[in-house]
Amino acid sequence: MVETGTLKGPEKAREQKPISTLDVPGRPKKAMRPSAEPIFEVRKLTVSYDGKPAIREIDLDIGRNRITALIGPSGCGKSTMIRCFNRMNDLILGAQVEGSILYHGQDLYGPAVDPVEVRKLIGMVFQKPNPFPKSIYDNVAFGPRVIGMDGSMDSIVERALARAALWNEVKDRLKDNAYRLSGGQQQRLCIARCLAVEPDVILMDEPCSALDPIATGRIEDLMVELKSDYSIVIVTHNMQQAARVSDMTAVLMPDVEAGDNAVGRIVEYDDTEKIFTNPENKRTEDYVTGRVG
């Protein structure tokens, strides 16, 4: 039996449950829920490596069934921040996370929360395609097999590949090694592998940086299609991509007010259209127009 406790953060008691038993509101009928409902509530988030802050006092809510883009110059903590949402920073020696991230009201960093269970619900696609040295089929089936998903594995694999807009291209070559796919196909395979375990959220850390424009366009179209069923957070250096696909955009910049260019803070967070057409912060305007960066 897993012990439960209360967390006063800041001063409100909250029951702690294993995240695998969470009653995630609306699953699987996510599209029926209001898109503005927050799926993540981030408060005073600070991440340090070996005692040196990388991001400091981040506050924002991330809406459900929206694509939220994190943009900003290199080294301002975008990847550090996105890794907090599924506790990937736990795997980095010397990383320390302070503050809180609520996921459907549950503290992701609560003492009774299992990070492995977090990563089942909050999947991640990385900068470079990273298929396993296995067949296309076995890549997609890997996660469902590990967690013991019920149902026909063939159906699970087909559904995930179809959702990733890859089924028609690979349905006759499922036994081929995944490395025989093109770069764009490999990235969509990684998305299919993520979708196969039926996550609630998809995190994407520069998913198109290694792809050509055609493959990038396919991934972007896929993201827009997927947001009806998933909440998506994306890190990107491509301003045009953020403007094309995201609903909300957070701009991270070095904390110059504190005299520390190595620490990232959010200088503006708003609807993407407003960020790119009528930003309130001068640093945001300079960055999105290419005057700095």
Q: Concise description?
A:
The protein is of the alpha/beta class. The protein contains 10 helices and 10 strands. The protein has one domain: P-loop containing nucleotide triphosphate hydrolases (Rossmann fold), CATH 3.40.50.
Q: Which helices and strands occur, and which strands form pairs?
A:
Blueprint lengths: L37 E12 L2 E12 L3 E5 L6 H7 L10 E9 L2 E2 L7 H7 E4 L10 H12 L5 H11 L3 H4 L12 H13 L5 E5 L7 H14 L4 E5 L3 H7 L2 E8 L4 E12 H6 L4 H7 L5
Detailed description of the structure:
With 293 residues, the chain is an alpha/beta fold. It has a single domain (39-277), classed as 3-Layer(aba) Sandwich (Rossmann fold). Helix content is 30%, strand content 25%. The protein has ten helices and ten strands. The chain has helices at 78-84, 115-121, 136-147, 153-163, 167-170, 183-195, 213-226, 239-245, 272-277, 282-288, and strands at residues 38-49, 52-63, 67-71, 95-103, 106-107, 122-125, 201-205, 231-235, 248-255, 260-271. Strands 6-7-8-3-9-10 form a six-stranded mixed sheet, with helices on both faces. Strands 2-1-4-5 form a four-stranded antiparallel sheet, covered by helices on one side. A hairpin with a 2-residue loop joins strand 4 (95-103) and strand 5. Helix 3 (136-147) packs across helix 4 (153-163) and helix 4 crosses helix 6 (183-195).
